[in-house]
Amino acid sequence: MIADTLVTGFGAWNPIAWVIAFAVALLLAWLIGRRGEPDLPGDGESGKPYLSGNDEPSPEETHIGGSNLYWGFTEAMKGYYARVVPLHTGCLTDYVLWFLGTFALLFLFIGVI
Length: 113
What we know:
By secondary structure, this protein is mainly α. It is built from 6 helices and 2 strands. A two-stranded antiparallel sheet has the order 1-2. The two termini are 51 Å apart.
């Protein structure tokens, strides 16, 4: 039963054929991996990444903060964030109050409709 071909209307799926294809792909990957260089370069000049002849910049110089990444989104939603960010107090009891208030409004809305 497991080896039967499943016809879905969009094509056929045979698990045995896929297992064989997966095994062949693993065998090819293993053969290609065996042909690779077994020794990795050391810590010297040969171990550095190639950056078109340029020195590798420090991590501080290449770090991109979240504010830079989402700048366009936060700038477009500036009006929303100006009202919502002050509500985040970091106090758990405030969040529970918001949670209960939201559910009270939700239940009131469901009860009305």
